[in-house]
Every structure is written in C-alpha cells, then in structure tokens.
Design goal:
Layout lengths: L6 H4 L10 H18 L5 E5 L2 E6 L12 H11 L3 E3 L17 E4 L5 E4 L16 H17 L5 H39 L6 E7 L4 E4 L4 E10 L3 E6 L2 E2 L9 E6 L2 E6 L8 E9 L2 E12 L30 E5 L5 E4 L4 E10 L8 E6 L2 E2 L6 E5 L3 E6 L8 E9 L2 E12 L13 E6 L5 E7 L11 E8 L5 E3 L9 E5 L6 E10 L2 E2 L9 E2 L3 H7 L27 E8 L3 E7 L10 E8 L5 E3 L10 E5 L6 E10 L2 E2 L9 E2 L11 E9 L2 E7 L7 E10 L5 E3 L9 E4 L7 E10 L2 E2 L9 E2 L11 E8 L4 E6 L11 E10 L2 E2 L3 E2 L9 E4 L7 E10 L2 E2 L9 E2 L12 E6 L6 E6 L11 E8 L8 E2 L9 E4 L7 E10 L2 E5 L6 E2 L10 E4 L5 E6 L9 E5 L2 E2 L6 E6 L2 E6 L8 E7 L6 E6 L1 H15 L5 E9 ...
Parallel strand pairs: 7-14, 16-23, 97-104
Antiparallel strand pairs: 1-2, 3-4, 4-5, 6-8, 8-12, 9-10, 9-13, 11-12, 13-14, 15-17, 17-21, 18-19, 18-22, 20-21, 22-23, 24-25, 25-28, 26-27, 26-29, 29-30, 29-31, 32-33, 33-36, 34-35, 34-37, 37-38, 37-39, 40-41, 41-44, 42-43, 42-45, 45-46, 45-47, 48-49, 49-53, 50-51, 50-52, 50-54, 54-55, 54-56, ...
C-alpha cells in the first residue's frame, strides 16, 4: 500500500531515511545524469593541500578523499585503480541486474579494467592513494589548460578557477549528504538483522579530564550505548577501583546509559589516569580521562611525595642545566615467598642534588619486561623510596626484579631475584600448580590454551592436565577436557561468539589434583580482525584514504578456502588453519571440515551438524599413527562451495618430542648461601620453554626444586642454600611436550662464599688535623669478599676552587687499622680522600670521594670524635657498642664517653643519651630496645674542658635475635676446669673464633687456653682468680655478626670456684646422715642413705677406728639402687659405747658419716633397747596393746578401757580397785580386743587405783590406772570439760525478785567449779546477787536490778585447762525488757500474795439432823482485810437469829445455824473480796428429820 510503512520502520530511529531504496536510486540516477550534462569536469574533484586529489565517479559507495597532495601522488602510482560500486555503471554495463553491488576498477570512460578487494562492512581500516589512470588524466588536463590559457589574461584564469572550485565544493557537499543517507540506511539494515541486534558498546559522551584543587570533589561521567547492556568497570592507573575497599572515597553510579565515578575530597594520591571500560558479548571499549589535583601555593606540603604521572605536571622541575647523581640504597635482597602470600620489594633512592618536587622516572622490570600496575603488581613512589608490592604471589611472579631510576643524566638499576615456592598441596602427594597460562590464536569459537609444567610432581609422575574455563563476569568454572592431556597445549572449542573467557589449568597424578594455576588474562571469542577493531586500532595516516563498503552479492555460493595447512599436530589432536575465500557470497560464511585416510578416496565430514565460524579447527579422536589428509568447504545460505585443495598427508602423533636431558652440569661457589649452576643446553630441542634445576644435600637423596618457573639460558644462581652444606645439582629441560629426563648430577660443591675483592669502604671522616697532616677514619666495607681484609690503601687529591686534582697514593704499604695519618699535606689547602680495601683476592674498587676537608691545625680544647664504632651481640632487646678513643685528645686527656641513640628514621631532635654519667670503658651494653626497630648510635668523648663532637653515626641496626643465635655457656668439667663455651651454626670454612676480654683480643695464653673443634670453641681458665674478672666475648669472622659475651663477676667467680673444688674433690651426696633406730626385740639399726651411688660403690664400717665385718653380732646391708646402707646389732652392751662410722667410696668421690654414742646418750639407747626386748617377751602371751586409760562420754560417764592382744578363750581379765576385785558384767571380746569399765555419775568416792590383770596359761600382763590425787583431778577436769562444752548459751530471764542469768548443762556434778564474772571481774555474792543450781540449770539472780547492774556477764567453767566461758550482754533494750518484765512479775506476785483468800475450814457437804445446831468456821486472809459475803443457792443471805454470820479479827468467818430444819438444806458459799482479788468457798447442807431417813439414804 503506497504511503504506509511496515512496523519495523516505524519503531526505528531513522525509518524516514531507510527502506526507500527505489526513491533513493531514482534520486541518485537523476543527480548523476544532471552532473554529467552540466559539468565539463569529471564526476567530482577533491582537493587537499592546494593540489587536486583525484577524480572519480560517485555511486552507492562514494569515496571520501583526504590527505596531502604530495603523499597522494606517491601512493597513486602503487594503486593504479579507482574503486567504484557497480550502481554507477548501470547504463553501460553488460552484467545482470541481480548483481547490484560489486567492487570493480574503472577508467575515466567507465570501462571495467579490474577488481578491487573491498573493505568489509563495519571495518574502520581505510585504504588510501591515487589511481595511476587518474594521475595521468590530471597531468593531461593540466597540460591542456596550460596550452589554452597561455594567451588569456590572468583575470579570466582566476574566474575559471573560482568557478571550478565552487562546482567542486557543491559536489562535495552533496556527496557527503548522500553518503550519510546511505550510511544510515545500511546501519538500520544491520540493526534489523537478527545477528546485528547485538552490538558492541559505544561511548556517546566520553569522560573528560579535570584539574581540581585539593579537598574538592570531582565527578567523571560518560554516556554509553550497546546491547546487551555493557558491564562497566572504572580503573585508576589500570587498577580496578573498589568502592567497598575505600568506603566514602569513591562512589560509582549507573543510571540508564549514564555512568559516573565520583571522587570525594581529592588529595595528591588521586592524581592519576582514569579509564572506564565497557564490555558486552559483542566487544569492549574504553575511554580515558586524567585528574590533576592541585594545592594552593601557601599550603604546599614539601614533604608530600609527588604522584607518579605519565603526563607533564604543572610546575615540574626542569632537568636542564643540572647533572644528577643517583644512588640506590637500603635495597631488597634475594627474597623467598610462597604462593598466596604478599611480598613487598623496596629501595631507597637518593638523588643529588635534592630538588623539591623533582620526579625521576621509576620503573620496575621482571626478567627485563616492564611491569605495569595491575591487580598483581602495585607500585608506589614516596619521593625517596620506590616500592613494588606483589599482592598475591604465584609462580609466574618468580624472576629477576629490577628497579630502574632514570634522570636526564642517566639511569641507575638494582636487581635481585624473587623465588616463589608452591603452596601446600590440598592433597598430600599432589603435584604443584601449572603456571603461565596463556590464550593463543583466539577466534569466534576456538582458542588454544598453553601453559608451563610445574617443577614439583609430588613424588609421582604427572598423568596430565585439566583445562577449566570461566566466562568473564561469572564464577562458574567448567572443565574443558574429560581426560587429562599431557601436552602443555590444548585447543578449546565450543565457545560462544562475542563472549570473553578466562582459563586455568590443573595437574593430576595418582595422588590427586593440584591447586589451580593463576587465571589467564581474559580473551574474547571473536575474529582477529574484530578484536583489533574493538581495541580501537586504526591505520596510520598515509595521505589519501579510500573507504569502501561491501555490498555482498545475493545467492552466490562462496569459493574455495585459501592456504589450508596443518599448524599443529599431536597424538591427541590436529589443528587446521586457512584463509577465507575471495568470493564470500551474501552473508558471513562458515566452514565444513573433511578428512580422508591416506591411500583412500573416502572423504568424511568431521563437523556434520554445525559448521564452524572460525578459520581454525581442532580435530580430536584421530587414530594415532595413521596418516590423514584434510580439506575445507565454505558454505552460506546459497549453498556449500567447492573444497579446498587437500593438505599433505599428516601422521597423527606428537610432532614435538620431549627434549633431551641437558649435559655437563657444573656447580661453582658464589656466596655463602648460593651456588652458580651452568649446563650445556639440550641438543636438537624444539620450542624449548626453559630449564628446571634441582638440588640435594649429599647423602640425603631428597631433591628440592631451585626454581619454580623455567629459566632460559644455560646458567642459573641457586639461592637459599645452607652455608657449610655440600650439594649436588641436576637440570631438566621443558617444552610443551613435557619435561626431559634429569641430567647427570653435578660434582658436589660446598656452599661457601667465593673469594672476591672487597667492596669499597665508606664514611670517611677526619679524626685529627695539624698543619701538614690529617688523620682519617672510615668504616669497614659491608662486603669483605669472603676473605679477611688484610689492609687499606688511602689516596688523596687537592681541591682548588672546586676543581679536583689528580689522585695520589698516601701509603704504599697497606694499613690494617681503619685510621691513618696522611702526611706531607699543605696547610690551609683543601683535600678529598678515597680508601680501598684489600684481601687475598686483591684490592677492591675505591670508595666514593670524601667530603672536602680543610687542612688546618685543630686548637679546640675538647677532644675530637671517637671512631671505628662497631655494633656486636645484637639481640631483640639489647646490643653491645664498641668504639675507639679519639685521636685528638684536646687540651686534656679523655676521661669518659657518652653514648647517644635514636631510631633510624627519626629526626635529629630524637637523639637521647644512654648513660647519664660518663663511662671510662670503650664499650657499653645497650638494653631495653624495642624488637623490630632500627637504631643508630654515636659516641662523644669528654675531658676536663668539656664534651667534644660526636662520632660518625653507625649504620642502622635492626634489633632482632637471628635464628640460631646462641650464648656463651659456662661449664665446669669433672676435673674442675672452668671454661667458657660458644657454638656457631653459621660458620664458613674461613670463619674463626675470636675471644676477647673487655672487648680486647686475648693474648695472655698463661691464664686462658683457647680450643676450637668444628663449630664449637672453648676458652678454659688455667688458674682462675680475681685477675680473670671481666667481660668475655667471642665473635665469629665471616658470619653475619655471630657473637656473644659473658660477664664474669666476683660473685660468679666465687660460685664457679666452689663448683670447681667440688668437681676436683667430689663428694658422694647423702640424703641422710648416719642415724640409729631401735627395731623389734631391741635390735639396734645404724643406717644412712646416699643420694646417688653407682654399682661400683663400696662401704667400710668402722667402730672406734676399728673395721667391722659381718658376723653374728653385726649384719650389714647395702642397697645400691636406693642408696640405703645399714648395720644391725642384736643388742647393746657396755662395750659398744663409742663412735660408729660409715666410709663411702665411688670412684673418685668419697664421703663418710659418723655417729657418737657415749655417756647418757648411749645409756638411754641401751635402756630403750632392753625395754624393747622385754616388750617383745611380754607380747608373746596375752598382753595389753593399749594400756588402761579412761574416756568421758558426752553423758559425762567415765569409761575405763584398754586394748588387749594375743588372747584366747580361756584368757581371764580381772578388774581391781585399791586391791579389791570389781565384778564386771562385760565379757572379753575376742574380735575387738577392748575391755571397758563404766563409772556413771562419778564422784570422789570413785577415786582410787584401778588394775586389770590379763592371764592365761601362757602368762599374764597387768595394767594400772591411778585415779587418785592428780590422776583423779585430771579425770574430773575431762568431765568438767565435757560439761562445759555441753552448756547452752547464757540467757536472760526475769522473776518477781529481779533478773536471772542462766545456762543448762547436760549433766551437773557437785565437784564442778564455776565462776560468775561481771565486766571481766569475779562477782562477790551478797543478799542482792546470788548464784545457784537447780537440776542442770546454773543461774545468777540479781535482786531489784538498777542501771548500775548493766554490763557484760559471763560464767566460766573451770576444767583445769583453758576453761570455757559463756557471756551475755545485759544492757540496752535487753536490760530494759528484763526490768520491765521484773516489775510486772513483782506486781503480780504482790497481788497474788495479798489478795483475798479462803484458806480452809469448810467441808464440801454437811449432813445434820433437823433440830441440831450447825457451826462452821473458816480462815480468811488478805491485805487489806477482805469483805465477806455469804450466799445460799447463789443468793446473798444476811445474819439473823436463826442464821448467825460472824467475821472476827479479820481472819475468822463463822457460819452458825441454830436448830436446823429442812429449809436450811441447800448449797452455800462464802465470797471474800478485796482490791487484789476475790475467792469463794462452797459447801452443801443436807438436813434430815429421823435417823431412819439417814440410814435409808445409805
């Protein structure tokens, strides 16, 4: 339908320009026809630089013409053709209309004269130059114009040129517009293509550079397009920026297609080159911007280092006119690390003159390859120190590292090797990780991965390798090969076009899998040409550039691939490569690969299902040993093309053989820890990667790798060896096919430093100066060359107005001291000096020239500086500093020294003194150092005039105790010889022990003998005495400062002399001296125990200087295991009084111990012996094991008891008191053997002598217990103690008389004595204060208590010992409560005592005969006199004639009834009452008439 647009046009940005091919073609044809008819010139002319460039016809693909005319003229001769699209030749061409776009070369009449290879769509590579035809045409045109216009005026020629230029400009503008239209049309076509919907990232707006002030923030932003949405990463100096690692510093944002990086509060370190990288499946693009951070001039920090930049800096110091001298000091040495660790290498760089803000060129190299900042390497320059940090060590990091510092005046370098050992294997016995994984020959779906084999196979041969791949942006690793490959190269197929991958490799042996290698650099699966385009490469400017667009032909079958060849062949795979054909067809072509077994014509397609896109292909699963030919076919939608010519027959197998073993391995000495190994390279080796070197200590049969990264060449320095050990070496060659067999072992080589000339001395200073001579001092070289320095040579030269003269020798003969007087100088002249050291290897290079010194006589009063400072005996917290006194004494003699210290990096103000009081020694031990800190020292001398100038500062010394450091040990041998012993494990063959006393070498061999055996040295004192007191030190030459000292003080010498005496005259130590003890039957045992005695020990037994021998009287025993020696005698007689001695001997050692038994001591022992004999006889029959005694029970009963033994049934026990037998109810117990007699409620009558007799037919035994006098008192005291302990706490109670204090006991005995105390004084009893006992209660009564009675009361029980006291506090509230209660009880008692009472006289029942008189009288008491009331049947009655009631004398109440009658019967009661109370008495009166009535009642 005319005028309508399809949906895919409406949704496109440029739909109004695209899909109008018919209209566009009409416009182009109309424009071309009008151009030819209206212009006398060719289609168009482009000029550049004032010269006509070329003339060409414009078609669908117009020519963009640039460049200078001269360059164009040069290039035109080589091209010779003009490229034009076929659409510009429609009217004259004989070709079919279907072929609308091809690339042909035409002449000026549009005749086809050749074919031009186009630049494919999307390419940014331009072709430039003139065609030869156009060049000749231009020349002809110019000649014709010259002939026609030769006679015209200059005005006409100018008008003609103006008109020509106008036409040319107009045609150029129209052509550019048309080119834009066509370009947009083609771009839209690409986007609508299914494969073109994805496109690489493009920067619509790139980030721009900024210059900001310090502490300001800056934002870098860019706008991106691309599909899929690209992944954006920001970098600083090629190092990824991680906002999480720098919180608050960086802020990265992405909103739609706008991406930004914000840097907060910029400082100098933020000055850098930043770039943003955008990546998706179609490719990667990067854009760069720089940030420069400036500081206000008034705030410039001169100490801040200038940041390293790759562009010119504002205000940079100019190098012109300045000669720089560069020195690299404080360097890093040979370093050893392990995979996964972090390592820093650093050097201090000194540049003279020292210009502020001057930035030298600082570069780091590994194996002569420049290193760039990355996640593996971080460089830092602080202004005076260069540092390289290896953030995560891998074996790829092993190599020779070089620091190069460049200035205008030249450069200085320093190098040292870094070794990286394998990390511990995850599986024991697994091999090391492969290394150096690289990606080669990457294409759209194919890449070759290569690597290097590890040096360590884990003790078992490596079976092969597994290759893993991971798509960039993910953490998912996929194994690429199912079976391990032995060849160190593997083609990896099956990649997705446009995606980026990283690879790693793992080795495997029968023990297990190795750790994975370091990940390779990412590689994109794209065509090589596309990769070059994504990286932004472009052709160099060559003048004229011609850009053509491919317009492929529709439905054309592609031609044959070109240059097919086998690029790689192993027994596992074969790799083919070829070039695309010239005729490509409508769209991108793909390929089918076919194979044929040699000798047959049967071709078999390898990739039957999916054709490959890359001009590379790897064939697997080929039969090893067979020969194959291969060919390739191209295909597209139009069909499959003709096959390429087949390759030559290729036999499947490893074309690359494992290299042969190297030969003639030679190891030579190098340093104290390294050996140089050289060898003859492997013969006929192809594609050699390098060599692995292995070493083994002679006799160990354990081989260790010297390098973990193959080294090229045929020489290598093996470091990290043990000084003094002997090693052998062997070498293996490596290529992709594998590792060769090991070479023959080298000859054994002893590791020790090779002799070389020493390094130059340094630190030259003037120690004294007179009119015509100067005394110089200097420091020993850091490297002595492996041999003792035998002397120094001094040179001098005169300096006049800054010009140096010729050097002159100051001494012909070498000097051994590090100080020398240079004579024959001229007064007031200036001189420079240099010093050379010499050893057995020769004279070393001279030192750097010293400072310029003026030769003039010193006249100062204070001494000059001390010199030759040496640091020794370095430990983690202490060291010893030695020095020599100043050469120049000053006005007076030197009388002391002061030592100063400071940290190595501290300022001059940090110097502090070690000793407040000057020391007269020339050494000092400095303690309390901080471990790991570096220190420097200086010394000042003083005399009576004052303190002189300080010495030269020592080199920085690190406070640490080195591994293997040992101290001097003191020993006293068996002969009593005192010796000092020192051992050094780091000795070399040239090392010597040097013994010193007070740090002066010992030369007196009459007092000390020195002996050396291997790594041990001994200094023995021949006649130790006070003259030997001092500090003894031992140092070892040709070591890293191995030394130690021992301070032999007077007290220590005294102890050593005592020990020496003991060793000369040894004594057998005794655990116990000779002692005596009695045994059963009264036998006497003499014994002692030696602490230690050998089996050869002997004992002599002596009595009164007479030797004793074993017999009936003496029995001797000697247990050598326990050291117990004993002699036993059956009994003692008076003849045995005297001295007994045991004499011991064990080799040289002796000892003896004596025991004197005379006088009372002997008699007591003899008596005890006889008693023991009797006791033994007694115990042969029934006897007392425990004699009669007593015990008191808690109930205060006394039990007499004894324990008997050796009894039987008929054994009789008789109890007696005072000779009278006591009958006992208890039977003898044969099991317990205890006899008891219980005395309850003991009293004085129980005192007496108690006996118990035990007897039977074997004999009898008697035991007596005297319980009279003191014995009875002792027993009663025990009873009293039990009573006292049973007493309760003293308590307070009240009575009607007063306050009572009381305690209860479990049992009271009349003999118990107690004492009451008031305020710690015994109470004197009176009528008011009394004590007593009621039952088991003991009380103290206080009548009518007052305030004076308050206080502390106690009752004390007397038990003949300490007694027992119970106390109570009667005061305060307790006293008040008790008094109140007493008053209450007293009042109650008074009331009870005085109340009205009926005391008696009234019967309960009265029976009386009628007519009789009844007279009853009762006693009444009470105060006051109570009132008396009588009641009958509970009703009051009054006195009358019949009933008479009387109350007389206030005591007697009478009840009288005259002539009772029956009415008088009833219940009567009397009621008495006063103010204290009321009481009543009741009785019943029963009246009967006749006696019979009474009897009937009975």
């Amino acid at each position: 339908m005319p005028g309508s647009l399809p949906f895919y046009q409406k949704h496109q940005r440029h739909y109004d320009h695209d899909y109008r091919s018919s209209e566009t073609q009409a416009l182009v044809s109309k424009y071309r026809a009008s151009s030819r008819s209206s212009s006398g010139y060719p289609a168009h002319t482009c000029t550049s630089g004032g010269y006509p460039a070329h003339t060409c016809n414009s078609g669908y693909a117009p020519h963009i013409c640039t460049g200078h005319g001269l360059t164009s003229a040069r290039t035109s001769t080589s091209r010779g053709l003009t490229a034009s699209s076929y659409s510009g030749l429609e009217q004259s061409s004989q070709l079919t209309k279907r072929a609308k776009a091809t690339h042909l070369a035409v002449d000026r009449e549009h005749h086809i004269i050749g074919y031009v290879v186009p630049i494919f769509r999307g390419s940014r590579e331009f072709a430039g130059g003139y065609s030869g035809v156009e060049d000749s045409r231009l020349k002809a045109t110019s000649a014709s114009m010259w002939g026609q216009d030769h006679f015209t005026s200059g005005l006409e020629m100018e008008r003609s040129e103006v008109s020509s230029r106008k036409v040319t400009i107009r045609e150029s503008a129209e052509r550019i517009s048309l080119s834009k239209t066509i370009y947009e049309n083609e771009e839209h076509s690409k986007r609508m293509n299914k494969d073109s919907l994805m496109h690489a990232p493009e920067f619509v707006i790139k980030p721009r550079s900024h210059t900001v002030w310090e502490n300001q923030s800056v934002r870098l932003h860019c706008t991106l397009s691309g599909w899929p949405n690209p992944h954006v990463v920001w970098y600083k100096n090629n190092v990824t920026i991680d906002p999480i690692a720098h919180p608050g510093k960086y802020k990265i944002e992405s909103s739609y297609s706008v991406h930004s990086l914000e840097i907060d509060r910029c400082d100098f370190d933020d000055t850098a080159q930043y770039h943003v990288s955008a990546m998706n499946a179609k490719g990667e693009q990067s854009a760069y911007a720089s940030v420069v951070v400036k500081r206000f001039k008034g705030e410039m920090d001169t100490s801040a280092p200038s940041p390293r930049r790759s562009y010119p800096r504002v205000g940079q110091v100019s190098e012109y006119g300045i000669t720089f001298k560069t020195h690299i000091v404080d360097t890093f040495g040979v370093s050893f690390g392990r995979e996964g660790e972090t390592m820093s290498l650093g050097c201090t760089v000194i540049i003279h003159p020292n210009l502020e803000r001057y930035q030298p060129g600082v570069e780091w190299y590994r194996d002569d390859v420049l290193l760039a900042p990355s996640k593996w390497h971080q460089m830092h320059w602080s202004g005076d120190r260069a540092t390289l940090t290896l953030t995560h060590l891998n074996k790829e990091d092993e190599g020779l590292y070089t620091l190069r510092v460049t200035t205008k005046s030249g450069y200085e370098t320093y190098s040292a090797y870094v070794f990286v050992r394998d990390a511990d294997a995850e599986v024991e016995g697994a091999p090391g990780a492969p290394l150096d994984v690289r990606c080669l020959d990457a294409n759209k779906d194919y890449v070759i991965v290569s690597w290097k084999q590890p040096a360590v196979d884990g003790g078992n041969s490596i079976l092969g390798y597994f290759v893993d791949r991971c798509e960039v942006g993910t953490n998912h690793w996929i194994q690429c090969n199912d079976t391990p490959v032995k060849f160190a190269r593997l083609p990896v197929t099956g990649l997705v076009e446009g995606r980026s991958y990283a690879f790693r490799v793992r080795a495997v042996n029968k023990s297990g899998m190795s750790r994975p290698s370091r990940t390779s650099e990412p590689v994109a699966a794209v065509d090589a040409a596309d990769r070059a385009r994504m990286r932004g490469t472009s052709a160099p400017v060559t003048g004229q550039i011609i850009v053509t667009e491919e317009e492929p032909a529709e439905g054309v079958v592609p031609g044959k691939p070109l240059e097919l060849e086998v690029t790689e062949a192993t027994k596992n795979y074969v790799v083919l490569s070829w070039k695309p054909p010239g005729e490509r067809g409508h769209e991108g072509i793909m390929y089918y690969v076919e194979k044929c077994v040699s000798g047959t014509d049967s071709w078999q397609r390898v990739n039957t299902e999916i054709p490959v896109k890359s001009p590379r292909f790897a064939l697997f699963d080929l039969a090893e040993g067979k020969s194959y030919s291969f060919r390739v076919r191209c295909c597209n939608s139009a069909g499959v093309g003709e096959p390429s010519p087949p390759t030559e027959a290729t036999t499947v197998g490893d074309k690359l053989d494992v290299p042969a073993a190297p030969e003639r391995v030679v190891a030579t000495r190098n340093t104290a820890t390294s050996v140089v190994v050289s060898w003859e390279k492997s013969r006929h080796a192809k594609d050699l990667v390098g060599y692995y070197i292995e070493t083994s200590v002679v006799g160990s049969d354990t081989w260790e790798p010297c390098n973990n990264k193959p080294v090229p060449g045929s020489r290598f320095v093996c470091h990290g060896l043990v000084t003094g050990e002997t090693y052998v070496f062997k070498v293996r060659a490596v290529n992709a096919a594998g590792i060769s067999m090991s070479s023959q072992e080298s000859e054994p080589v002893l590791v020790k430093a090779a002799i070389a000339s020493p390094a130059p001395p340094f630190g030259i200073s003037v120690l004294e100066c007179v009119r015509d001579s100067m005394v110089l001092g200097w420091k020993q070289p850091a490297f002595v060359g492996g041999s003792d320095i035998i002397g120094y040579f001094v040179d001098y030269r005169e300096v006049f107005d800054g010009l140096e003269g010729q050097w002159h020798e100051a001494n012909i003969q070498s000097v051994s001291d590090r100080a020398y007087r240079v004579c024959d100088l001229k007064e007031n002249k200036k001189y420079q000096f240099q010093v050379r050291a010499a050893n057995m290897a020769g004279v070393g290079i001279p030192s750097l020239p010293s400072n310029t010194f003026l030769c003039e006589e010193w006249t100062i009063a204070v001494p000059g500086p001390p010199h030759d400072l040496q640091v020794t005996e370095v430990r983690s917290s202490s060291l010893v500093l030695l020095w020599k006194p100043p050469v120049y004494q000053g006005r007076d003699a030197v009388n002391g020294f002061y030592v100063d210290i400071k940290e190595a990096g501290a300022s001059e103000e940090a110097w502090r003194g070690i000793n407040k009081k000057a020391t007269d020694s020339k050494f000092i031990k400095i303690e309390n150092l901080q471990e790991g800190e570096k220190y420097v020292f200086r010394v000042r001398a003083q005399n009576n005039a004052g303190v002189g100038n300080a010495s030269e500062v020592t080199e920085p010394t690190l406070a640490e105790t080195k591994a293997g450091t040992k101290e001097i040990m003191v020993d006293v041998d068996d002969d009593g010889v005192i010796s000092l012993n020192f051992e050094c494990s780091a000795m070399s063959a040239e090392s010597k022990f040097v013994w010193s006393k007070n740090y002066e070498e010992i030369s007196d061999t009459e007092r000390i003998a020195v002996e050396t055996k291997g790594s041990k040295a001994k200094a023995s004192f021949l006649a130790p005495g006070e003259e030997d007191i001092g500090v003894y030190s031992c140092s070892v030459t040709h070591t890293d400062g191995a030394s130690a000292s021992y301070d032999l003080t007077a007290e220590e010498l005294k102890k050593l002399l005592e020990t020496s005496h003991d060793h000369k005259f040894p004594i057998i130590p005794l655990k116990s001296e000779l002692a005596v003890e009695l045994q059963e039957k009264g036998r006497v045992r003499f014994w002692l125990q030696a602490e230690k005695i050998s089996a050869n020990g002997k004992v002599d037994y002596v009595f009164n200087d007479n030797s004793l021998s074993a017999g009936e009287k003496y029995k001797m025993n000697f247990d050598k295991n326990t050291g117990v020696i004993e002699m036993i005698m059956e009994s003692l007689t008076p003849k045995d009084e005297g001295t007994f001695t045991f004499q011991l001997q064990d080799g040289k050692a002796t000892n003896q111990s004596s025991l004197v038994l005379i006088g009372d001591v002997f008699k007591a022992l003899q008596k005890e012996s006889e008693f023991q004999m009797k006791e033994w006889v007694r115990k042969q029959g029934p006897h007392f094991v425990e004699y009669l005694g007593f015990e008191v029970t808690p109930e205060c009963c006394v039990i007499l008891k004894c324990k008997v033994g050796n009894i039987k049934k008929d054994t009789v026990a008789l109890w007696q008191k005072d000779g009278q037998e006591i009958k006992s109810d208890q039977q003898l117990s044969f099991t317990e053997g205890v006899l008891k007699l219980e005395i309850a409620q003991i009293s004085k009558k129980d005192a007496g002598v108690y006996n118990i007799v035990l007897k039977d037919d074997r004999g009898k035994d008697t035991s007596t217990l005297n319980l009279t006098d003191q014995g009875f008192r002792d027993m009663m005291n025990e009873v009293f103690s039990v009573i006292a302990n049973s007493s309760t706490a003293l308590k307070i109670t009240s009575t009607d008389e007063g306050i009572r204090l009381y305690t209860f006991v479990s049992y009271y005995n009349d003999l118990l004595q107690v004492t009451w105390h008031y305020k710690d004084s015994a109470i004197s009893f009176s009528d008011r204060i009394k004590s007593g006992v009621v039952g088991e209660q003991l009380w103290l009564q206080i009548k009518e208590p007052t305030e004076k009675d308050t206080g502390k009361y106690a009752i004390e029980f007397n038990d003949g010992k300490g007694g027992l006291r119970r106390t109570v506090e009667l005061s305060g509230q307790a006293f008040d409560d008790a008094v109140a209660e007493f008053k209450r009880l007293k009042a109650a008692a008074i009331a009870e005592r005085n109340r009205a009472r009926v005391k008696g006289g009234l019967p309960d029942v009265v029976t009386i005969q009628e007519g009789k008189d009844l007279n009853l009288t009762c006693n009444i008491s009470g105060d006051p006199v109570p009132e008396v009331t009588w009641l009958k049947n509970e009703r009051e009655i009054v006195s009358d004639d019949h009933l008479l009631l009387k109350f007389e004398s206030g005591k007697f109440a009478s009840f009288i009834i005259t002539k009772v009658n029956s009415d008088d019967s009833g219940k009567y009661s009397i009621l008495v009452k006063n103010k204290f109370g009321t009481e009543s008495g009741e009785f019943t009166v029963s009246v009967f008439n006749h006696p019979e009535e009474l009897g009937g009642k009975k």
